[in-house]
Amino acid sequence: xxxxxxxxxxxxGLNVEADVLLWGRQDSHxxxxxxxYPDLQNEQKNGFGIxxxxxxxxxxxxxxxxxxxxxxxxxxxxxxxxTAVGPTGTAVSGYEPDNNTTEFGAKLxxxx
Length: 112
Prior knowledge:
The protein has no helices and nine strands. The chain is an all-beta fold.
């Protein structure tokens, strides 16, 4: 985190972060589609994320107001393929494919 005073009433903050996925699990509820399909659980072990934001703070005597636009990015690699058997003997095999996720947003806040 970085915070710099721009003027007596304005501050600017900056945040940059790198994340590593150590372990995750993707649950696929295939039984919601039909009772003959089993649910699958895929472990995910390879991925990384990057996030960043900047914060503009308007300082007041007792209350500060802030605006913080942000971006978050994740890249997750393929999971291993798993096979499961449903209650009627139907076997299903699947994996969670390599994927990317990008989020943009903004926080509006009040600090006391």
